[in-house]
Amino acid sequence: MATIYKRGKFWWVSYKDRTGRRISKSTKLTDKTSANVIKKHYDTVEKSYSFTGTPLQHSIKFSDWFNEYMQLRENRLSEKTLINDKLAYNSLKSYLKNDKYLNDIKEGDVENWYNYLLKNNSVATANSYLRHIKSCFNTAVKKEYLIKSVCNIKHAKETINKITSLTQEEVKKLLSIMPIGWQNLVKVALFTGARAGEICRLKKKDVDLNQQTITIASTPNDPTKSKKFRVVPLPDHSISFFQQLINSHQKQNLLVNAKNEQWRVDWITHGFTRYAKKAGIDCTFHDLRRTYGAWLVMNGVDLVTIQENLGHSDISVTRNHYIHLMIDHKKEQVNKLPVIM
Description:
DNA polymerase, domain 1; about 50% helix; 3-stranded antiparallel sheet; single chain; about 350 residues; hpI Integrase, Chain A; mainly alpha; elongated
């Protein structure tokens, strides 16, 4: 029978291979319960040798493997990534209707699940879930729970959807019905292109009025989406606004709400939707970030600058978001050619 023991901060498993040789392997887990799941796997493997001389294929359940997989990832990745891991897992498990053994899940099962996602969700959501499941099965192969991954499906190509961006008139209408705290929030979003979560953690020290820049910080405990910090230039006409913002309260945070507290993402997203509805404008708070990018494109700013300011991980993301605006802008520029008769 396999055994587990602790060496340093990790649990190790000891088992016999098909030749009878004793093998010791680190589980790279600090949790004993999760390590016991691996022990049960090798218990089953050892028993299978006495019957067939090869590892028993029905060795570990999908749910047990996923719990171990999350233990491996929880200290290395952002909370949002882990949440998406769970959403993808729950979606596939629900589609399979029961908790199958890992080796019982076939490529056809995953392909049918992916096609089901494409019919009922956006292409982006389906591709996101598939990426997380691919990572899960690829790691199972590395851990030798599977011979090969069953996720060999190519991602569907996303159609280019026109983003929602606001006009200057719509922004003025929104600001006119908002109290000062919300006005400040909207202006910071439009001056920086920052996401709601990034705005919540902005500090006064992140604003450099001399250099006219703002730093969007990323820390291991609270990373940005791309896990990189970025320095965003501020427009000249925004400097007096940021100066007033810094002097308006004593907190370290750049922005505080009416109760002099740090903003939270759910307060922003839900509250902004109510104001937008009141103003008769169909938009979300994230559309302010898209508006920032759209305004830069329409004023002829190059894609690399827009990518760096928005913190996109790849320039293809920026191009796919704003390609239709770029084409419109180019058409306007072409119309400036002299008339030849």
